[in-house]
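Question (not urgent): is this output format expected?
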Amino acid sequence: MAKYQEKFFQGERSLFAEKGAEIIRTTFGHGESPLKESSDISLKDSIFKWKYPLWYSDHIKVDHTVFEEMSRSGIWYTHDIEIVNSSLQAPKLFRRSSRISLKNDHFSDAAETLWNCSDIKIENVTANGDYFGMNSENIYVDHLDLIGNYIFDGGKNIEVHNSNLVSKDAFWNCENVTVYDSFINGEYLAWNTKNIRFVNCTIESDQGLCYIDDLTLENCRLLETDLAFEYCSNVKADIHSHITSVKNPISGTIVADSIGKVILNSKRIDHDHLNITVRNSQEAEAK
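Got this back:
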């Protein structure tokens, strides 16, 4: 196995098609695609300063490494990559890649990151950026702290645990999502999604949870959430808080501690398939 330690590389494709190498305390300076077409690479305590560092690569392990701002679009068409304890400053870092493991990492600019990827595991990651995880599938998340709008748009088969998500339009156009023990803040949550389940979650969302087929909320709290459930079908909602307002759900059961307003004014809906119940003696105001 080749070993590169305390080296400095610059220029285009400086280690093109490198195979079976250990790279330690090494800096890749100005020059595109330094490790393009590489495989079986171990990187530790290293720095990428320029564009496209890991394209068309396989079997990559990265530890305590920095992807600087200009290493943008850095990891595309790459499969079986593990990145731990690392600082990632560049946007668009993953595209059309698979078997991705991220642990103890910080993304300072995660805009358009993890697009069209599959088989992703995220553990103890912080990120800031819009359109994180778009059109990706088979995603497991535990302890993700993310600020950025439109996250996981178009995603499939997503499981989230113990996370804080501050995001407008999160989980739009998704299929098969389950979120456990998490806090979600942002407008228009989960529109146009099929089969989404929240368990032990706290949610604040203006006009959140609308246009959904097969929506489940188990032991959840909705803080200042208004006009919820519009045109949702097959709702199973167990809400242990007040709901500001509910508007025109199609079918299912909604149970809450109290509801400010229940608005049932759509001529398109037969409300015979809907059951709304409040736990305390104060009845919801129907209009």
